[in-house]
Write a structure and sequence with these properties.
The chain has 5 helices and 4 strands, in the order ββααβαααβ. It has 106 residues and is an alpha+beta fold. The protein has one domain: GIY-YIG endonuclease (3-Layer(aba) Sandwich). Strands 2-1-3-4 form a 4-stranded antiparallel sheet, with helices on both faces.
């Protein structure tokens, strides 16, 4: 299982990534560990704003790439209304391969 996620940083910027273990990866980002992303070492992470799951790395990478091509405004709109995913990508990706989930990090 692969997770595609959007993190919100304290400066209100957004970071997009993929992982096989969302809780572990979130803790790597907030701890600024060596395994955390260079971006999140410089921009303190606050929360997971959006998360999807899918079954293989190839389709996860395609979604990650597509999300990264969105403007900041489109990313914010997607976070507010997940139905925007259909508007942004229905012609580009098979959305039935992805499931939007809520992540509870404690």
């Amino acid at each position: 299982m692969y997770y595609i996620y959007i993190l919100r940083c304290q400066d209100n910027s957004l970071y997009i990534g993929i992982t096989t273990d969302i809780k572990r990866r979130f803790h790597e980002h907030i701890s600024k560990a060596n395994k955390g992303a260079k971006y999140t070492k410089a921009h303190a992470v606050e929360s997971i704003e959006f998360c999807m799951v899918c079954q293989n790395r190839s389709i996860a990478s395609k979604m990650e790439y597509r999300l990264k091509t969105l403007s900041k405004k489109q990313k914010e709109n997607l976070i507010q209304n997940h139905d925007n995913l259909k508007i942004y990508f229905q012609d580009q990706l098979d959305l039935s391969l992805y499931e939007i989930i809520q992540v509870n990090i404690e």
